[in-house]
Write a structure and sequence with these properties.
The structure is a single chain. This protein has a single domain, classed as Orthogonal Bundle (Tetracycline Repressor, domain 2). The protein is built from nine helices and no strands. The longest helix has 27 residues.
């Protein structure tokens, strides 16, 4: 995998308690807006005193950074390596990546929406770190698709545009998916993976 330059001191605080707190915080930020949510509201949602939150985070801005860092860092470290696994063809690996990507985005939908909307509330240095992860993901996916074009696996004229179209397809799902509907997120992920690789990229059989 291409080298990713980042701050080694910035790590997602992934404990069961921190995940619980950040899930509630991200939901509240998503529903009410980051500027309208205070520590007390988060504490009430978690069921603890506000002072207890400071044992885990330095404040609301630290929570926002952990949400943004966590959702991007976790994706880079757990989902993106699917593209570089040795088992399966390039088309099969891309389908597996798309499936995992869609399910991950749905599971962390509040985190992702909060990151996209409220990232600018963070200091520039922290914004740049998160954006660096996002650009790294885009570069890896674009290069993966281009390599598939070069080797004759994918048949599309422009790998960059195909990558952007693929990202747009994936990112739009959270806007319309209804878990109470006829399809599960897993079923949607399977169908999108097939449509993207077989139709958008016209993968060779």
């Amino acid at each position: 995998m291409e080298e990713l330059i980042h701050n080694p001191n910035s790590r997602f605080k992934e404990t069961s308690r921190s995940l619980e707190i950040l899930e509630e915080a991200s939901r509240l930020f998503y529903e009410n807006g980051y500027g309208h949510v205070g520590m007390r509201l988060i504490a009430d949602a978690v069921g603890v005193r506000a002072a207890t939150l400071y044992h885990h985070f330095n404040g609301k801005d630290d929570m926002l950074f952990q949400i943004a860092l966590g959702v991007t860092q976790t994706f880079i470290e757990r989902i993106l390596p699917t593209l570089e696994e040795t088992d399966g063809s390039r088309a099969e690996r891309l389908k597996a990546f798309i499936r995992q990507h869609i399910i991950f985005r749905w599971q962390r939908r509040y985190w992702i929406s909060t990151t996209l909307r409220d990232l600018k509330a963070l200091p520039i240095k922290q914004q740049d770190e998160v954006i660096g992860y996002l650009r790294h993901y885009q570069d890896i996916l674009r290069n993966f698709i281009q390599a598939g074009i070069d080797e004759g696996t994918f048949h599309t004229q422009n790998g960059t545009l195909a990558g952007l179209a693929l990202i747009g397809m994936i990112h739009g799902i959270n806007d319309w998916f209804n878990p109470s509907g006829n399809l599960t997120i897993e079923a949607v992920a399977d169908m999108y993976a097939d449509m993207a690789v077989d139709n958008l990229l016209r993968a060779a059989n």
